[in-house]
Design a protein that fits this description.
Layout (H helix, E strand, L loop, with lengths): L4 H6 L7 E4 L3 E5 L7 E7 L14 H17 L7 E3 L15 E5 L9
Antiparallel strand pairs: 1-2, 2-3, 3-5, 4-5
């Protein structure tokens, strides 16, 4: 498997603005933000996309959601944020290493209600 951009960030081969890191995940600022606060929550295990996850990834996927809540509290977002996961090129995924987008800081009216 080819090393992804996110693998290089996780391995500290290329710089990123790291907001949070633990043994299973890393949170960075998106370099092309779509909201005033746009973070990427990335598992250190390379799962190409959500539909590639398997039963053994259950705990890790839950961990990513807990990290989203933890980071939102760190940044005092007052529980006002969206989590987006793009799955596949036709859904807007450009880096094939699963990641969650945490978006906040403005009304995100483009999301379905």
């Amino acid at each position: 498997m080819t090393e992804s951009l996110f693998d290089k960030i996780i391995n500290k081969d290329i710089p990123a603005d790291i907001i949070y890191e633990d043994e299973k995940s890393i949170v960075i600022k998106d370099i092309n933000p779509q909201a005033p606060i746009h973070l990427l929550i990335i598992p250190k295990k390379n799962i190409p996309m959500l539909s590639s996850a398997c039963e053994e990834d259950r705990e890790l996927l839950g961990h990513l959601m807990i990290v989203a809540g933890k980071v939102s509290k760190m940044l005092e977002l007052d529980d006002t944020f969206n989590i987006v996961i793009n799955n596949g090129a036709n859904a807007g995924q450009t880096v094939f290493h699963l990641h969650l987008h945490l978006l906040s800081g403005k009304a995100l009216s483009w999301l379905p209600a």
